[in-house]
Design brief:
The protein is of the alpha+beta class. Helix content is 27%, strand content 29%. It is built from five helices and seven strands, in the order βαααβββαβαββ. The protein has a seven-stranded mixed beta sheet, sandwiched between helices. A hairpin with a 2-residue loop joins strand 2 and strand 3.
Length: 175
């Protein structure tokens, strides 16, 4: 994974993920089984973070030098995690693989703050658009993305061969 300065996502603090973050992030995932049931159809597995760290787009054109993982902190408390891929699916478009906030961080404007920090950061890296997938049943996330100007591009149907248990809406926003 490439190292760049982390985005500014005030009031949270973002920094590049390091090895010692593994246990608290995995514990954070395991403490929110409802999110994983909603998005994946099953509670988080014991290697949820490892899956996140190693996941790359299926086209094989992107490598770990194009992957950026950030931990989000509220003081010393783990507040969430962000996963980004540069230049996917096209040049200058970045893909937001995951923005996960703990339940205590949701509904407080933190998701919006993270997105807005990412817009500036991605633009500074030469990005011109941000693309993401949101599970159709995740109404709160869909509302946030719509209110931030994301536009529907396509849908992906459930596909167990790629661990997609739910219908996913692909959205994109110009930066």
């Amino acid at each position: 994974m490439t190292r760049l300065d982390a985005p500014i996502v005030a009031p949270l603090v973002a920094r590049a993920l390091i090895e010692s973050d593994a246990e608290p992030i995995q514990a954070m995932f395991e403490s929110d089984p409802a999110y994983f049931e909603l998005t994946q159809g099953a509670p988080p597995g014991p290697a949820e973070l490892q899956s996140l760290v190693t996941a790359l787009p299926p086209d094989g054109d992107r490598g770990y030098e194009d992957k950026f993982l950030f931990i989000l902190l509220d003081g010393e408390e783990v507040a969430g995690v962000v996963d980004l891929i540069r230049d996917y699916p096209t040049a200058a478009t970045w893909y937001l693989g995951l923005v996960f906030l703990t339940p205590t961080q949701r509904g407080r404007g933190r998701g919006r703050a993270v997105l807005r920090g990412l817009y500036s950061w991605i633009s500074a890296q030469g990005g011109t658009a941000l693309r993401l997938g949101v599970v159709e049943g995740n109404a709160r996330a869909r509302w946030l993305y719509a209110s931030e100007g994301f536009v529907f591009q396509a849908s992906r149907e459930p596909d167990p061969t790629v661990k997609r248990a739910r219908r996913v809406l692909m959205l994109e926003r110009s930066l």
